[in-house]
Amino acid sequence: MQGFIEIKGARVHNLKNTSLNIPRDKLVVITGVSGSGKSSLAFDTIYAEGQRRYVESLSSYARQFLGRMNKPEVDFINGIPPAIAIEQKVNSRNPRSTVGTSTEIYDYLRLLFARIGRTYSPVSGKEVKKHSVDDIVDFLASLPEGTKVIITSCGVIPGNIEVPEYFSFLIKQGFSRIETDGEIIKLDEIQSFEGFRAGECVNIVIDRLIISHTADNFSRAADSAQTAFQNGKGFCQAVILDDNGYRRENFSNLFEADGIRFEEPTEYLFSFNNPIGACPVCEGYSKIIGIDENLVVPNQNLSVYEDAIVCWKGETMKKWKERLIENAELFNFPIHKPYYQLTAEQKHLLWKGNKYFYGIDRFFQHLEEKKYKIQYRVLLSRYRGKTICPECKGSRLRKEAGYVKVSGFTIQELVSVPIGKLYSIFTGIALNEEDSKIAERLLKEITVRLKFLIDVGLAYLTLDRVSSSLSGGESQRINLSPPWGAILSARCTFLMNQALVSIPVIQICSSEF
């Protein structure tokens, strides 16, 4: 029967040889008294048969990992598509699970940053690029005709041989000149080696060119650049001579800048469930066992003078507070202001200290040094708790992941933005033509899932929100997001059990159908 799921002779649990036709592409509600067989029909019959048929359509190799699925007690079911059931259960207790991972949005973000992310140096802020021979040829092609260029590579003088022996080795390899301050020196004409020391880099001349915009000239430049990369262990330098002297352009086929070697972006670099991308301190959990600020300052309405810092009370420990109070006027620290009114800079100073007093961190470091004594171990245990990781600041990722940006945003910044604002960012994202083609499908998957979360009333959540902190209603609606993305490419049957918490979802389903 077209347009219907046809069921005949269903006998699961309380169903007594039930036969019915359920319209497809409609919102259908199954009601009845307790024990009438509502869940038996929806989950133990329709969902079970839809899932069993899907598994049977897989290859025999895939089925061996899924196990055997029993056929429900029913004579006949026709017209049933693959089924997706939303369970009525408590939210995940996995400490690694977040809103982003549960909805699969974070997986697409990782792919997006791996495909079109640009790495920027934290020192200079410049984009890190891996140069090729073509980049050097393109640079030389941009110079005016007649420009004199020296292509050099760096050679480090080893410490285990004499300098004359190293230069003799270069001559045997076919290199006859070195460059210093724009001047060329022949190796066989060097009389004194006093200016050269072991460990220093000498610029070995690979080729001398006079720029001519011809194919032969650029072919020669390409061969010279390749030789420079090989001899210089990935580094090449072009010395441009002009009327004003000389200037240097550095190239590297290594992914480095400002003396820092960077990792090339991969999807694993942005995964906190993988050792490659996880923060080495907290191992991707975002929190560590450390000194809990709420235990050190339990009453933030008090000031430092009023003993807000409880670990600095008592005859022995009060000397730490007294030193701060005595020297506070030297650096304008407000000892009479309540702790909660202190600025972020003042709190940071209180914890880190300066040359006038020892901070709270130094106090607990002192206790760590003395913890061979039982009283210090007991004192330390009073203030330990789960605290935000100081290395990744709660982002779960290693710092190298923060060097990669897409349209000016790092992945840590995007996951901390509310979903409503994040949707606006992705719908208005500006990319060049090449990146737009690469990211087209990824952006579609991300925006569809973000739009769904907004429509079900979850625009206030962030993707880095831990799943265990969600309410039951939030958790059930978030569990709908992954299958909702699948409905883009396949027709599915959705089954929800007592979905009162999913009233916004039901409204969306009815409007879509």
Give Rg in angstroms. Answer: 34 Å
Distance between the termini: 19 Å
Query: What is the number of E strands?
Result: 17
Sheet with the most strands, sense and barrel status: 6 strands, antiparallel
Give me the number of helical elements: 18
Strand content: 15-25%
Which class of secondary structure composition applies to the elements?
Answer: alpha+beta
Global outline: flat
Mean pLDDT: 85
Uncertain segments of ≥5 residues (pLDDT<50)? none
Instruction: Report the helical percentage.
Output: 25-40%
**Which strands sit side by side, in order, in the main sheet?**
8-7-9-6-10-11
How would you summarize this macromolecular structure in one to three sentences?
With 513 residues, the chain is α+β, with helices and mostly antiparallel strands.
